[in-house]
Design a protein that fits this description.
Length: 242
């Protein structure tokens, strides 16, 4: 099975999880809903394509390798979203802000970010997919809209698509995909339950989203293992890598 290899590298990343108050936590690694949303944005899909995005989420299979461990950063923010004439930059350009928050005045938030981390993702699509893997690859290289690693302030520092690799599961692909010679081993790797060693530490995550309702919608089990992929020297990097 063919897999896309993604490099998620940015000064700041934030992979949101369930938030019930002004505190906005981040998952320790890229999430299913965030990767699905990033692909949908790259393809140019809109909010009205929510059911198609849900179908895409259903067929995404991936594993994440932590090549460089991030540092957790907590950012205290205040913003008056109800101010008349307030404008903000979005994927669609500069737009008026406020809406439902217009009557609430100043917003106080504590947002969490992962600083300085680098993740490698092996991703594939299973049967009944609404789009072909080759279309996803083309879209990630030439996205219809700007791509972010979580929040809009988290711009990628390098090209996201690194190449393709065949393998039985995403976990097996990441175990073989080489790392730079200066990376400390072993590396943490998160993968779908049942697609890697059963000895991996289980973790329940809430990262599935109903894109039609714009709400988190269910939990699943990931596993965490430590792996030692082969090394490579900087001179052997491919044309997509920097």
């Amino acid at each position: 099975m063919e897999h896309l290899i993604l490099r998620l590298d940015a000064p700041l990343q934030s992979w949101g999880t369930v938030a019930m108050d002004p505190r906005r936590p981040t998952s320790p690694c890229p999430t299913l809903s965030a990767l699905t949303g990033m692909i949908a944005s790259a393809l140019g899909w809109r909010y009205r394509d929510a059911e198609k995005t849900n179908a895409l989420q259903d067929c995404v299979r991936y594993a994440v390798r932590e090549d460089v461990s991030p540092v957790l950063v907590r950012d205290f923010q205040t913003a008056d979203l109800g101010r008349i004439g307030s404008r903000g930059w979005t994927r669609w350009g500069v737009e008026e802000r406020g809406g439902g928050a217009a009557s609430t005045g100043t917003q106080i938030l504590e947002k969490h970010y992962l600083a300085g981390g680098v993740f490698t993702v092996a991703l594939t699509l299973e049967a009944e997919r609404p789009v072909q893997l080759s279309e996803v690859a083309d879209a990630l290289d030439r996205p219809a809209r700007p791509l972010f690693l979580g929040r809009k302030g988290c711009m990628p520092a390098s090209r996201i698509l690194q190449g393709t690799e065949d393998g039985r599961t995403p976990f097996e692909v990441l175990r073989r995909w080489p790392v730079d010679d200066d990376v400390d081993l072993p590396l943490r790797c998160w993968y779908n339950h049942g697609q890697g060693p059963d000895s991996g530490e289980p973790a329940r995550v809430s990262d599935r989203r109903n894109f039609a309702l714009d709400r988190f919608a269910g939990r699943r089990t990931l596993r965490l293992a430590h792996i030692e992929p082969p090394r490579r020297s900087p001179s052997s990097r491919g044309p997509h890598e920097s």
